[in-house]
Specification:
Layout: H1 3-8, H2 10-19, H3 24-31, H4 39-59, H5 70-78, H6 85-110, H7 126-135, E1 136-137, E2 140-141, H8 147-170
Antiparallel strand pairs: 1-2
Length: 171
């Protein structure tokens, strides 16, 4: 730790900030923070902090959700891995949270708060969210997710019924 960090008690600041983080990745990024000696950077950060405070005063607290595990799932899927229905449902919930955050930031834009224009950098992936919402229910792939899946599950049900009837007649 540098002398400047000791004087500023920067470790205590990072510790308090880390307590508010929603993900492990955010906590890691907080631990990597360094005090800025650039006047321009400090003024820009102060402006963003002031705008964030104004957003909270006008629009309330931002909708925040836990994103634990999402990075790993995205990396896994990008390498060709297959996510579980539970993971896909969580992804859908995260995308819904992104939609809520975009709406929140749009309200800030109505009040001409500069920070709210970050909304333009967020992609809610609405098509994917809607598709997941219609195909995954209660941590399970819905029977109607595809015609093939529906017919396969119906065939399985018929086969299980036949086996059950045969077992009863053999008993």
């Amino acid at each position: 730790m540098t002398d400047t960090e000791k004087i500023l008690e920067f470790d205590r600041i990072k510790e308090k900030l880390a307590e508010l983080a929603c993900t492990e990745k955010a906590r890691q990024q907080i631990q990597e923070l360094k005090p800025s000696l650039s006047e321009l950077e400090v003024k820009a950060s102060q402006r963003e902090t002031t705008e964030a405070r104004k957003m909270i005063e006008i629009c309330g607290n931002p909708p925040v959700t836990v994103l634990q595990g999402v990075d790993e799932w995205i990396e896994f899927a990008s390498k060709g891995g297959c996510l579980t229905p539970q993971q896909l449902e969580q992804i859908s919930m995260v995308l819904a949270a992104v939609r809520r955050l975009k709406d929140y930031l749009r309200r800030g834009k109505e009040h001409e708060i500069g920070l709210a224009y970050y909304e333009e950098n967020l992609d809610g992936l609405d098509d994917i969210r809607e598709e997941l919402g219609s195909k995954i229910r209660n941590e399970r792939v819905d029977d109607y997710a595809s015609k093939t899946l529906k017919s396969l599950r119906e065939a399985i049900d018929r086969a299980e019924t036949k086996m059950h009837v045969k077992r009863q007649t053999l008993s």
